Amino acid sequence: MKPLILINFKTYKEAAGDKALNLAKEIAKVKRDKYQVAVAPSLLTIKEVAEKTNLTVFSQHADPVSLGAHTGRVPIAELKSIGVTGTILNHSERKVPLKYLKETIKDCKNEKLITIVCASSLSEIKKIAESHPDYIAYEPKELIGGEISVTTANPDIIVKAVNLLSELSDKTKLLCGAGIHSKEDLGQALLLGTKGVLIGHAVPKAKDPKKFLSEMLI
Predict the structure, then answer these.
(1) Domain CATH for 71
(2) What's the whole-model pTM score?
(3) 20: which residues sit within 8 A by CB, 6+ positions away?
(4) Which residues are catalytic?
(5) Domain hosting residue 160, numbered range
């Protein structure tokens, strides 16, 4: 399986409204033979990006609710119906209780929606691994949104996370998040045993996102 490169648009102004599709189209132009590139647009733009690009599209959140009387929720079945492939869960900016998270992972499995669950510590990885999501994205909280990658600041913790997860859930792959912003960060993450990276501001906020991502994926 190719390493996963997931770019989270969050609700950055550079990826809001009409800019979301423009950004996604620029990303779609990047040669990506060695990688599986995916994007996570905002919930307001996700359907258009899924319909009008050939990118793999993830949602930034999902709720364990069926279609029905659930105001303000994000039903998994609806995400699936509009062409969404997977979802990010438990991001540091959208934490959910463990019980709720387990229900969501279970429902995503039933709908065949890929789950990427964020964890900010090794102890959190242990708890999440019990539900066997497809991926756990390890993002030490203090490095999220910064310019220093966890692969530089503390590479040993990534090795510990890889080894821990292999013991707890052989079906779950580890992604590296927090501060990924260069080809060196990506290369180091893969060398340390992860199966890809979760990227936040580095791509959406780049002056030339296509050029920036192209140089990262060399």
Answers:
(1) 3.20.20.70
(2) 0.94
(3) 9, 41, 42, 45, 48, 49
(4) 91, 139
(5) 4-216
